[in-house]
Amino acid sequence: QYYEVHNIVVPHIGPVPIAKGDFHKLPKKVQKFIAKWVDICAPRALYICDGSKEESDEIIHKLVERGVLTELKKYENCFLCRTDPADVARVEAKTWISTEHKYDTVPHVREGVKGILGQWIAPPDMEKEMNDRYPGCMKGRTMFVIPFSMGPVGGPISKIGIQLTDSNYVLLCMNIMTRVAPKVWETLGDGEFVKCIHSVGCPRPVERKVVNHWPCNPERIMIAHRPTEREIMSYGSGYGGNSLLGKKCFALRIASVIARDEGWLAEHMLIMGLKNDKTGDEKFICAAFPSACGKTNLAMLQPSVPGYTVRVVGDDIAWLKFDKEGTLRAINPEAGFFGVAPGTNFKTNPNAMKTFQKNSIFTNVAETADGGFYWEGMEDEVDKNMMITTWLNKKWQIGAPGKAAHPNSRFTAPASQCPNIHPDWEKPEGVPISAIIFGGRRPTGVPLVFETFSWQHGVSVGACVKSEATAAAEFKGKMIMHDPMAMRPFMGYNFGNYLKHWLKLEAKPHKVPKIFHVNWFRVDEEGEFLWPGFGDNIRVLDWVLRRCAGEEGIAEKTPVGYIPKKESFNLTNLGDLKWDELFSIPKYYWLDDIRESKRFLEDQVGTDVPQVIWDELDEQEKRLRDL
Ligand SMILES: C=CCn1c(=O)c2[nH]c(Cc3ccc(NC(C)=O)cc3)nc2n(CCCC)c1=O
Ligand SMILES: [Mn+2]
């Protein structure tokens, strides 16, 4: 029979050989979903995954034989993968969201301004693009069927997805990053699941030359989301952010739409627990930072001074939901860490280093002659004379020109292996959240930490998050870029409506947490960092928690929020700290900052900005004028 799919008619190619698993035991809805895409993509065989170690070992063995993976003999069960250099990062310009009505997806952007809060594509145009890519795209390849759960399988906040993919690398990483298990089928039953279709876009016989045994189709990459149908279709890229669909595509973009509909939050946040060693009292916080702020380093913090036992729940994504007592609880929907390798070492993040000593996959890092991994930041941890092979497969040594690892090279490691993973990290109902922290890389004008005056003020601060970033190619050096709620590349729907959703959650019986803003990166006139950061950040989190506990006399009011009273702050062994410079609130810097933020919101969100946000910015401006 024929399938009416996306208005194209594909011949029913009849049964394909099932390499693994029992197709007829799958839930009916799942069988239909698979059969439809088998007909469209025309794979050579079907492989139903079970997420077992045996399965991963079998795939790894095959990929090592084929030269896709190189074993890192210095570690246990660790492998290096080099991608096609044309397929090394997320591609925002080719990331689309399709809904019936444009303004369900994007805000009303000012005429002539390029929208940076998501790209909308009309359903008919998306169908045309899909029909142009998917028919026959898996010819000569195996279609892997990955049943996965975001969050502990069966948990009340968890959600199930099924990913169809022709990439075995994706299968290996999904087995680390999500919960893949036959139990997902039972839990799913006849229920709904997020439909994830991924292809590297290289049917056999391949037309485009395959580099590094990494099939991809960079020229025709398209990462498309249909939130209303809970569907994701990713074509042409094998790279993590584009192909591990459980992460950015599902756990942020699609999940933020589900969360809007169901009354919870899917956020780009770390989750960490801080136990006061004296009182035994433990509090959890969530924090949202743009890239290059060291989010993973903070999540896995090794404190530099005693007083707290810090443990990580998650380093990238948080699903937050108010429980029936009105307490905000969060789960980490992921099961692994997909972290930026460069800059990670035993000083900046010893817990990360210990996490990926085994059972981990490294993508586009460098390789040492003794079978280890290497990247920028490891100079002091590897013998100076060590022969190194770069991510581009060139011979190299420390001190030589060029980079050994790609700046966006990644480690993929099981969260369970992290030495300071929290014992409750897989608690199905999540952990209670006492504070939400926003932050950015702000070299000037922004104090180390401030507490916002209210939920509404906090949401307005989140909406105006900015961070210094290496600007796109055309500029040299750095620019301060907007990254509202650190969700800019991951918004699932109209950002104005997203802010409205946040504001609405304050309603009773919800007990909203306090919202803070931090900045580890302020520098003095010589460009020297004013704050030592890293393990010393525990001092800031200590003050945050004491404020959450309602401790009096430790804060003073400023126009932008409450900042610590110097005498209340733990400064032991910090030596000379330029406290006043670190906490100054320059009036005209901030007046400019507020004006620039208003301009950003007018340009990028326009009429969709909730009035409350304008009111908060106006009040902020008034407080500054009176400074
Ligand atoms: C929990 C740590 C958070 N954190 C920080 O708190 C932090 N602070 C800085 C800036 C800085 C760099 C070096 C020093 N000190 C010396 C000795 O070089 C101090 C501050 N860099 C930081 N980084 C690295 C950012 C790039 C990913 C960082 O991750
Ligand atoms: Mn992230």
* C-alpha geometry: globular
List unreliable stretches of 5+ residues.
1-10
Bound molecules: the ligand C=CCn1c(=O)c2[nH]c(Cc3ccc(NC(C)=O)cc3)nc2n(CCCC)c1=O, manganese (II) ion
The tally of beta strands, per DSSP, is 33
Please count the helical segments: 16
Termini separation = 74 Å
What fraction of the residues are assigned to beta strands by DSSP?
15-25%
Largest sheet data: 9 strands, mixed
- Share of residues in helices: 25-40%
What characteristics describe this protein?
binds manganese (II) ion; 627 residues; alpha+beta; binds ligand TSX; disordered N terminus; single chain; globular; nine-stranded mixed sheet
Protein described:
The chain is an alpha+beta fold. The protein is 25% helix and 24% strand. The protein has 16 helices and 33 strands. The strands form seven sheets. Strands 3, 4, 7, 8, 9, 10, 11, 12 and 13 form a nine-stranded mixed beta sheet that branches. Strands 14, 15, 16, 17, 18, 19, 27, 28 and 31 form a nine-stranded mixed beta sheet that branches. Helix 2 runs antiparallel to helix 5, helix 11 packs across helix 16 and helix 15 runs antiparallel to helix 16. The longest helix is centred in the C-terminal third of the chain and has 18 residues. The chain is globular. It starts with a strand and ends with a helix. The N terminus is likely disordered. Manganese (II) ion (MN) binds next to loops.
